[in-house]
Amino acid sequence: MSRRLVNLTLDTLEDLPRPCRQCVYWELDPVAAERARAAGDPGLEKEAWVSQTLLEWGSCGKLVYVDGMPAGFVMYAPPAYVPRSMAFPTSPVSADAALLTTAHVVSAFAGGGLGRMLIQGVARELTKRGIKAIEAFGDAKFGDAGEEGVSRCVAPADYFLSVGFKTVRPHPRYPRLRLELRTALSWKSDVEYALEKLLGSMSPEGLLRPVRPATRSATAPVGPSAAG
Known about the structure:
Elements: E1 3-7, H1 18-21, H2 30-39, H3 42-56, E2 61-66, E3 69-77, E4 97-105, H4 114-128, E5 133-137, H5 148-153, H6 157-162, E6 166-169, E7 176-180, H7 181-186, H8 188-202, H9 204-208
């Protein structure tokens, strides 16, 4: 099982799930978003936002592919580029942080550690650009009845907590969470080693991969090796 992490570009934008490709919840203010939906093609506004953000600020998203198939993505930007960021009861985002707007892993690939892999990729990218933290608004009642449109656009608070975020401003529905980038990078090697070992043992390639006698030491355990 091969996994590949790439930047969001105008080309890879087409690999987002169609509902996400057409969603402008974060990219436009509520009035402009409703106007774009009424016009019938909010995807054009999404593309324009990505293009502008790429030109003015740089990379604003990551996609992960598993065996060549789009398996998940995250998007992020400075709060000034995200009109919706001021609409939450736990706003504003801290001045030293980028805002992670949305995160999604395709259900067929859930549970394989791709969510954490995406966050690690964002952490590496933003650390190089001198940004200290990522913040996000989580939905503490994700999946509950009511406000279904919002639930699709705001990622579950539990997801952010599971990949290392901490709550910095509690709220019964929309807590604001924060991940210090040095923390995200500190557990990178241990997590990736464990995840690769797990994926290697679960995949057909890992189960069938032979051990080379010439390279295996006398004390090496027999079994699936970590995916390379």
